[in-house]
Amino acid sequence: MTFVLGLTGSIGMGKSTTAEFFRQAGVPVHDSDATVHALYAGRAAALVEAAFPGVVIDGVVDRKKLGERVLGNPEAMRKLEAIVHPLVREEEEAFLEAARRDGAPLVVLDIPLLFETGAEPRCHGIVVVSAPSEVQRARVLARPGMTEEQFELIHVKQMPDAEKRRRADFIVDSSRGLDEAEAQVRDIIRTITSDPPSQWQRSDNV
């Protein structure tokens, strides 16, 4: 049986770095954001352009233009999600099928809005990457082109970090440095691979 571990965390918490630690430890990772990027340059482009004319440039969705159309607009965001989410799920299912065929004991689904989109039932366990709010804000505002307004628009859409931590099976504190975060990831891998997956709370959902 392949244990499916959901990985999530709010913007600026260090989720992408944590996902890379899982990869370096030999755990297959499905990156939802990377999948969306690929879809925007592929089969989703025409669908998004039909829904939001003018956001596709040279066959690729311009994420900045798209963001201007959907951020802060719940109806537009729902329209976009109705296009993209089913395609991402198809890619995720193909990833899981391949992992099971290969006999992988553990895989990671890197899903930024895991709780917000109701993805918990697709996972045996969930790890949340977290850091103090002041660390999160400083990291995000240090990104090129990021403004306070953009941060707040993204932040308000995400479930509060405290609630995510409450729902988590594992927590990675990314504020203690890279070495400590990597050590936490290795501890999680050891815990999961040493316990029978059937013992886990969410094991009947996958």
TrEMBL record:
GO CC annotations, alphabetized: cytoplasm
EC number: 2.7.1.24
Presence of the UniProt keyword Hydrolase in the record: no
Keywords associated with the record: ATP-binding, Coenzyme A biosynthesis, Cytoplasm, Kinase, Nucleotide-binding, Transferase
Cellular localisation: Cytoplasm
Biological pathway: Cofactor biosynthesis; coenzyme A biosynthesis; CoA from (R)-pantothenate: step 5/5
Residue sites binding ATP per the record: G12, M13, G14, K15, S16, T17
EC supergroup of this enzyme: transferase
GO annotation, biological process: coenzyme A biosynthetic process
InterPro entries assigned: Depp_CoAkinase, P-loop_NTPase
A Pfam family that the UniProt record links to this protein: CoaE
GO molecular-function term, one example from the UniProt record: dephospho-CoA kinase activity
Reactions catalysed according to its record: 3'-dephospho-CoA + ATP = ADP + CoA + H(+)
SUPFAM superfamilies (UniProt xref): P-loop containing nucleoside triphosphate hydrolases
Annotated PANTHER family: BIFUNCTIONAL COENZYME A SYNTHASE-RELATED, DEPHOSPHO-COA KINASE-RELATED
Family: Belongs to the CoaE family.
Main function: Catalyzes the phosphorylation of the 3'-hydroxyl group of dephosphocoenzyme A to form coenzyme A.
Protein name per its UniProtKB record: Dephospho-CoA kinase
Organism: Pseudochelatococcus contaminans
